[in-house]
From TrEMBL:
It comes from the Bacteria. This is Sec-independent protein translocase protein TatA. The lineage of its organism: Bacteria, Pseudomonadati, Bacteroidota, Flavobacteriia, Flavobacteriales. It comes from Chryseobacterium pennae. NCBIfam families: tatAE. The gene is tatA. One of its GO terms (molecular function) is protein transmembrane transporter activity. GO terms for biological process: protein transport by the Tat complex.
């Protein structure tokens, strides 16, 4: 039970981390970093959605190769 309380973050911890980020990167660089993180997450989600489609190109090309060899 004590290990769970060690991992808990309070608002003071989050405030300290935010202040350190501002001091390290500056106020202008942080929005650029967050935009980069956001676009990376968006591209990842799009790639996962594209891979989950039942009629994706990878699956259709593998079935075409199998049918042409028969």
């Amino acid at each position: 039970m004590n290990t769970l309380t060690i991992l808990a973050l309070s608002w003071q911890h989050i405030l300290i981390v935010a202040i350190l980020l501002v001091l390290l990167f500056g106020g202008k660089k942080i929005p650029e970093l967050m935009r980069g993180v956001g676009s990376g997450i968006k591209e990842f989600k799009d790639a996962v959605k594209e891979e989950d489609k039942p009629g994706s190109e990878k699956k259709s090309s593998s079935t075409d190769n199998n049918s042409s060899s028969n």
